[in-house]
Write a structure and sequence with these properties.
451 residues; alpha/beta; 16-stranded mixed beta sheet; two-stranded parallel ribbon; 12 helices; elongated
Length: 451
Amino acid sequence: MNVAVLLLLGLGLLEAEGRCFFSRTQEHCVCYNLSQESLGSIIQCLAATVVEFRGGQLERYVAFPISDLDPSIIEMLGSLVIRKIIFGDLLVPEILLARVLTFFSYTQVQELVFESCIFKGRGNWAEMASQNLPILSLHFHNVTSAPLTGREQDFSSLSSWLETLQELAVTGSHVTSLPCSIGRLFRALRSLDMAQNSLGDESLMPTFCEGAFPQLQVLSLQCNNLTSYHSVCESMQLLRELQHLDLSQNKLMADPSSSCQWPVALRIFNLSNNGLDEVLTPLPPSLEVLDVSCNHLYAVDISLSSLKKLFLSQNMLQAAPSIRNYPMLDTLHLDNNSITELPWDEVKLLGHLQDVTAAGNPYNCSCSGAGGVQALAGLVHLGQGWPQDYKCHAPPRCQGRLVKDVLVSVLQCNSAAVIVPVCIALILLGVAGAVCLVRSRPGLVRPCLRV
């Protein structure tokens, strides 16, 4: 029974008194500072699909006796509906973790999360050799451990499990590199999140070496120390299945001489928050989603025939880009730029999109700034920002007013729409008058004399 107690406590045995809180509607149970004396409160967590353990130091339990499980306990563990376990604010001796992790093979837990944990020492991972676990998703956030370099043998002992893992996240943990040999173990991995670390340009090529992450489709390198657009592109060459790449919150710079080609499978590309004053090129050839929001772009002059979604919010754009360059586009976000008006010919094209937003711009409401936006609002849904976030900045008489409340004079803003029909009407009226005059006074028309 000691093993069951240790497993159910999620390594959360503490001296201080603790308690579990179960939300039946969310099927989520959180336990704080559990001790052997307060173990009874964990019973309510047995009906949860997500169990969270917070707080504690586990060094005193390194010598906790662990023996083989009785068949009754194995049956009990297999009947639990728990699918996700979260460990937080824990000091975890690896030797204890290595001994307990083997018992997860009897559960249905598919996702394991460690948040704000410190991993201490080194465990005997040989016991995990050839051990299969049901865990498909593994997350580490704000964790501290010994460097990964030199621990290839430890990871090799976990290969039977790691080769089946589909999602891995190591975020906010000051990671500077990932050894090539470790990356080669993750043969089925589909998603890798390395956001908020200390990865530099020089560390990417060894990390994504030949044979590493062969099935990777989604990669996040958000908020690292990346600066060279060309180097990042070169390091992605072997990720042939890569479809989604997040490079946001770095400091990428262009390389005019770069001729690197991105993986042809890449469809979703995030370059937001990089301080860009121009869109970096070359771009993936089959790109469908491009996010370059939160940069310093004054104009966007690119052409992508396959692009479906373009996010340009929070830049310095003076005008909306011509969507003639994006025949497949269905989504365009232009919030919080410096756009003062939407030309009538562009409005007609924008009206064919499914999702358009342009809130927070300094519209000039004397003419097309108001008329264009009003016309666009009549064609598409402008999102949650309409109408309260569409305001006039000029002329002074309209400043602060909502764009939708401005009366637009058709004669002033689109005089051609009035003048042309009037001219045609006057011409037709003149012709009709001449015909009537001729018919009423036949003598005005003399026949030609024959000689």
